[in-house]
Amino acid sequence: MSSALHAFIRELEQDACWLEPNRLRERGEVLDRLETYLGCGLPQDADASMTEAGLQQRMVALRDAFEAADHRLYQSIRHDIQQGGGARTLLAWVTGLGSDNVVEPRASGDSYDYLDVLIAGVLQIDEPDAQIAELADEMVFYQPTPARHIFDMIRRSALDKHDVLVDLGAGLGHVPLLAAICTGARCIGVEWELAYVDCARRCAQALHLTQVTFIRQDARAADLSTGTVFYLYTPFTGTILREVLDALRGEAAKREIRICTLGPCTSIVALEPWLEAVGAQEINQPTLFRSIEACAEILP
């Protein structure tokens, strides 16, 4: 084993600052490195004073200590959310991990980064117990919205406590849960897969988020009448998307609405004559659309 690894382990053991809450991101990077060493096994050390088994034990102890520090942080944030102070606490961590109130884009596109690790630890959403049903035609395989995009969407849409956010194809509920925590808005997650809905409901209940509702329903049959902001992470395509957009167009004839999209559906939504984009349109970034005042005249 190289002397560099020995020095690395000694540094970790001797510096208690690694366990401080504000070292979350750096601690995650070290944990990844430790897991790599432990998973691959260690070569025989020429230095007989430090055996492979002894070094592995020390690395396991460090890993356990770092994970315990992360757990304490997650539990502290969860407690604040349960007490109604989640917006202040969570957003402080989000902005602290980035700059200018926007999470630092370590990852690109639909990939995930350290912020998703934080959110996973805070939300602690259960894995579905039941088998996931086979997708119907035109429905897209579910993957959670990367956390940095959720906070970007919240910022772009200016979501606040007066809004009603409707997430069409909510999956495990990350978007409604975080939007409710950070803005106080009423949030509704519409999802066809019952196993996902059950998990999202349990999370909302555990965090005392009474303004979040999850409904097991086909998006085409959903009640959109209360929504002011709608979110679509390309949950479906083709005729399903067309029917949902037509329903949203009907709502836009009654009041101004905002639609935030992510993924391939953005280019399709951009073609709707009753919507105008607010800011740049990028398939790998959230795009905000606002209904046009004259949309009632556009309707046939």
Strand order of the largest sheet: 3-2-1-4-5-7-6
The CATH superfamily of the largest domain is known as: Vaccinia Virus protein VP39
**Number of separate structural domains:** 2
Shape: elongated
Estimated radius of gyration? 23 Å
CATH topology of the largest domain: Rossmann fold
In percent, how much strand structure appears in the residues? 5-15%
Mean pLDDT: 88
Query: CATH top level of the largest domain?
Result: Alpha Beta
Can you count the beta strands? 7
What is the level-2 CATH architecture name of the largest domain?
3-Layer(aba) Sandwich
Spans of at least 5 consecutive residues whose pLDDT stays below 50 are 98-105, 296-300
The secondary-structure element order is HHHHHHEHEHEEHEHEEH
Please give the share of residues in helix.
Answer: 40-55%
Structural class comes to alpha/beta
The end-to-end span amounts to 74 Å
Question: Biggest sheet: strands, sense, closure?
Answer: 7 strands, mixed
Number of helices: 11
